[in-house]
Structure formats: structure tokens, C-alpha cells
Amino acid sequence: MARTREQAPSARATVKQSAARADYQAETLYAIIDAALVGTVSVAIDGQPFALPMMVARIGEHIYLHGSRTSRIIKHLRAGHPVCVAFTLIDGIVVARSGMNCSANYRSAVAHGQGEAVEGTEKAELLHQITYTIIPGSKGDYREHLPEELKATTLIRIPLSEAACKVRTGGPNDDKDDVSLPHWAGVIPLTQVYGEPIPADDLPAGLATPDYALKFPLPKKP
């Protein structure tokens, strides 16, 4: 999946608006998905659009999502219909000297493709790996999946071979005539902060908080 920053994978995955902000490199795509945690899964069912935010995990060159086998979107994806998954990270509010020029610094990614259901022992193994991907360092701190849980859950795999990123950085792009106006301009940074772990109300006394929770998020593997 080696591509240059300017090399789009397909026509539908080509950034057209503000194309100079496009980035088609795998490392950019992976970094955005890994940081986002949640992706918006969009499909068309019987001519109607549906979009659902879901926790998504990247493992290698694919993204994985899971849900109830009775879910409308999950059943649609299992059948191999087209899907679009979008990820967005807001890094700052860009304040300009005019409302029209105010903006945001962001990192976004959109992946197009078709889903496929993962079955058998691979399904059980990947469901564990998804948890370890979302909660790095937690491997071995869970019981095994129950047969009825696996039966009720569908795991969908979507390739990342057709995806595009778009990134904005920097300050406001004010009109030249506005620069001398007596209005503040700049960037208000936004960051994601992880708080102190909160033990479950029914946690047995004396059970220590593990390092993966205290030091969350630990670095993720490529």
C-alpha cells in the first residue's frame, strides 16, 4: 500500500476541494485512524442514507468493526455492499478577522470499500486483538469469549486500499485588507486528554489498577 502524498488510489478517493491539503500516504492514514477511535460508517440501504458512529480498530491494512448480527448496517455490510467510513480529528479552532475566514485545523480520512464477514477461529482471535488495539497493553486481562457471544456478534473487515486523507494546519488565511483591523486572530488548540481511571463500583477490594489503565494510552504497534 505504498503511495506518495500526491498519488490518489482511485477517482472516488481523490480529494478535489482544497486538493493541496490531500495526503494519500499510508502512514498518515494509519495515524489518523489509530488516534480517532470512532469512525462514521455510511451506507445506502433501499435508497436511504444511513450513518452510524462506531468504534473502529485498525489491524495492518484493514479496519475492523463489530456489532450484533441483527443490526441493519451490520447485515448490509455482511452482504458485501459498498461502505464509506470517515474519521475526523479537530486540532484547533482557527480564529480569523472575518467570520467567513474562521476555520479549523483538522486531520481527516475517508475510506471506501466493501466489507466482508470474518468467521471461525480467526474471528475469535481478531475480536481479542481489536480490544488490545483499542486498549493497548491489556492483553491477557480478559476471559475468553463465550460461544453465545461469538454467535451473536458479526465481525466486519474493510480494506484500506482506497482511502484519502485531508489535513489543515497553521493560522488564519485572512484577506490582505483585513490584517490591519483591530481584531484578534490566531489558533485555539484542542487536545484530547485522558483522565484518571475510575474503578467499577463492584470491583473487589484490593484489586489494583493495571498499568495499561494508569498509563493509557500506551503506544500502539504499527
TrEMBL record:
Entry coiled-coil feature ranges: none
UniProt xrefs under Pfam families: Pyridox_ox_2 (PF12900)
Protein name according to UniProt: Nitroimidazol reductase NimA, pyridoxamine 5'-phosphate oxidase superfamily
Source organism of the structure: Thiothrix eikelboomii
Record lineage: Bacteria, Pseudomonadati, Pseudomonadota, Gammaproteobacteria, Thiotrichales
